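Work Package 3 (structural annotation) set out to generate three-dimensional models for the target panel prioritized at the project kickoff. During this period the team completed the workflow that converts sequence records into discrete structure tokens, so that structures can be stored uniformly alongside our sequence database. As a representative example, we reproduce one entry of 108 residues exactly as it appears in the project archive.
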Amino acid sequence: MTISFDNFKKIELKIGQIKSAENVEGSEKLLKLIVDFGEAGEKQILSGIAKTYTPESLVNVRAVFVFNLEPRKLMGLESQGMLLAAESEDGPMILIPYKNAPPGSIIG
């Protein structure tokens, strides 16, 4: 499936810095992340990466997020965005900027 460039432009990708991470009770896959987006503030984002990453390994990591995704309830918690990850044989690999871009940097 392809999408138009106009639809692609609607997706807001930003660098976020993970301030805290914890396992979601009752889920083997989900982690609850509190992510700093600089001047845009913080968001709670749930991500299905718990089988690959420990919460402790993610604190202060900067990664790529879909910033303007419609909020969604998972396991009774609201997820306000999406962490981008690539699939690999070892599980999801989060997308980390090559250089230390500040939180809130827009990818475009």
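The chain has two helices and ten strands.
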